């Protein structure tokens, strides 16, 4: 039997029932026959142990995302795309989570940013009857999972706040199965659902708010094919504030006489590090010697990225943005703001370093790598398929070097090898700014006083007439922007149900 101490804990029973005990097995068998263990099998296939004592929220979410087969759109290690705790850092720095844990609202934010559908409820905004209904529904299906945030003390367990997925439900006994991600501490266990509700109906001292539960499900299409927002860099706070708070104020000026005035006003005051806020998403893979073959899946994702890029460049807004950025007034400013980061060589070096960090399991530590060289190659396809562009980099650190390949969406097919400077064949400032302007909430522009100008700009930024692929991309970006704005305002914790578009 496990002894209390640093090697696991003895599970207090009652109230909990060890999943592997004879009584736990009996509950499991009966629940299977009653059809309320359907969600269990996908979850148990991806059951993981949190890698840090404070990573219970990240482990629970990565486990659920993998169970739902949500594609993260970027590599974990080697050729594999896979959700790992270290990849869930878009709403809270990992070092902060490791030190202090993560509050309920930030886990909701992470689930949204990872591309899942999320419904979240605090206990003071819901009822035990609703909770039971949701647990039964998700336990009877494998396309929705419940993550619970609760206080361990209610079960006489050591520790306080904790996250874990709910793996099933026993209707006759009104028992919920907790798949505890702290497997080094306690095994999976059944608990009375009413007692679990009491454990959730407690206040998190770090936020002063009630704990609760969230329902996580899969979207029809993976979002963020080409663009995504990032709060890994501290610039996201100033950029989010500028876009959501300052821009509407700027546009209420009497100087907004035409579309050019409006866009110029926005661009003139852009924070100097805005380029760190919105990113284009690259496919990263480890470079193997002599391996120049891309799978059909990789080609398909790259084609989708190119379609989104082309659709951005076909919007009327893109033409206005390009005309303004190419004017003499803004050329110097754009170079200053981007720091010449729009050159494919610089982007390739940066992304290849990030890729090396991901491939070596050191995500977020890309500054410890140096990209020695980059080269772009165009692999001409057979059977009339489009050529595929791959940027190759050799990344070095104190432990050696790593070859990294990056698949690049292109807007032209004539490419040269051994690049230097900008080639105009990748998402650049005008593409990124166009996407960012389209993603701003519609009320951003409502302060424009001239009705004709307001009508013109509203037509340019409207998502209604966008092609479906680009429309979904932009609406996902808008949801990310609103969620990050709530993070900045510390409203994500008490505004879980607010719309994201």
TrEMBL record:
Q: Name one GO molecular function term.
A: glutathione gamma-glutamylcysteinyltransferase activity
Q: Which domain of life is it from?
A: Eukaryota
InterPro entries membership: Papain-like_cys_pep_sf, PCS-like, PCS_N, PCS_N_sf, Phytochelatin_synthase_C
What top-tier enzyme class does this entry carry? transferase
Do you know which Pfam families this protein is assigned to? Phytochelatin, Phytochelatin_C
User: What is this enzyme's EC?
Assistant: 2.3.2.15
Tell me which Gene Ontology terms the entry assigns under biological process. cellular detoxification of cadmium ion; detoxification of copper ion; phytochelatin biosynthetic process
Sorted keywords for this record are: Acyltransferase, Cadmium, Metal-binding, Transferase
- PROSITE patterns xrefs: PCS (PS51443)
* UniProt domain Peptidase C83: residue ranges: 1-221
The name this protein carries in UniProt is glutathione gamma-glutamylcysteinyltransferase
Organism field = Erythranthe guttata
Q: What is the lineage of its organism?
A: Eukaryota, Viridiplantae, Streptophyta, Embryophyta, Tracheophyta
């Amino acid at each position: 039997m496990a002894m209390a101490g640093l090697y696991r804990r003895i599970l207090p029973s009652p109230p909990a029932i060890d999943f592997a005990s004879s009584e736990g097995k009996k509950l499991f068998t009966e629940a299977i026959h009653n059809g309320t263990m359907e969600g269990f099998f996908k979850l148990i296939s991806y059951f993981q142990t949190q890698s840090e004592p404070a990573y219970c929220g990240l482990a629970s979410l990565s486990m659920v995302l993998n169970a739902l087969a949500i594609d993260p759109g970027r590599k974990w290690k080697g050729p594999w795309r896979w959700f790992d705790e270290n990849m869930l850092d878009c709403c809270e720095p990992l070092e902060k989570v490791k030190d202090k844990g993560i509050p309920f609202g930030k886990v909701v934010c992470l689930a949204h940013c990872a591309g899942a559908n999320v419904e979240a409820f605090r206990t003071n905004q819901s009822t035990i009857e609703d909770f039971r209904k949701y647990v039964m529904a998700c336990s009877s299906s494998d396309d929705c999972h419940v993550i619970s945030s609760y206080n361990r003390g209610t079960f006489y367990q050591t520790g306080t706040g904790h996250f874990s997925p709910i793996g099933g439900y026993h209707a006759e006994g009104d028992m919920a199965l907790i798949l505890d991600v702290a497997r080094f501490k306690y095994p999976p266990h059944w608990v009375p659902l009413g007692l679990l509700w009491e454990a959730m109906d407690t206040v998190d001292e770090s936020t002063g708010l009630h704990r609760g539960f969230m329902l996580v499900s899969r979207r029809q299409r993976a979002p963020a094919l080409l663009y995504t927002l990032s709060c890994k860099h501290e610039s996201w706070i100033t950029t989010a504030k500028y876009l959501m708070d300052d821009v509407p104020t700027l546009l209420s000026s009497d100087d907004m006489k035409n579309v050019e005035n409006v866009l110029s006003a926005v661009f003139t005051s852009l924070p100097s590090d805005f380029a760190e806020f919105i990113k284009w998403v690259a496919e990263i893979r480890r470079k193997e010697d002599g391996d120049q073959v891309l799978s059909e899946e990789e080609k398909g994702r790259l084609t989708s990225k190119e379609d989104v890029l082309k659709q951005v460049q076909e919007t009327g807004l893109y033409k206005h943005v390009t005309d303004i950025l190419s004017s003499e007034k803004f050329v110097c400013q754009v170079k200053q703001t981007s720091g010449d980061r729009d050159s494919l060589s610089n982007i390739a070096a940066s992304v290849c370093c990030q890729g090396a960090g991901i491939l070596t399991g050191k995500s977020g530590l890309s500054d410890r790598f140096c990209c020695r060289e980059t080269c772009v190659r165009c692999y001409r396809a057979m059977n009339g398929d489009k050529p595929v562009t791959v940027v190759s980099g050799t990344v070095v650190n104190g432990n050696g070097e790593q070859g990294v390949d990056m698949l690049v969406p292109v807007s032209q097919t004539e490419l040269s090898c051994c690049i230097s400077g900008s080639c105009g064949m990748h998402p650049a400032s005008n593409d990124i700014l166009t996407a960012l302007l389209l993603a701003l909430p519609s009320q951003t522009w409502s302060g424009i006083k001239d009705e004709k100008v307001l009508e013109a700009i509203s037509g340019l930024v409207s998502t209604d007439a966008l092609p479906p692929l680009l429309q979904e991309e932009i609406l996902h970006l808008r949801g990310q922007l609103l969620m990050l704005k709530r993070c900045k305002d510390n409203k994500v914790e008490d505004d879980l149900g607010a719309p994201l578009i």
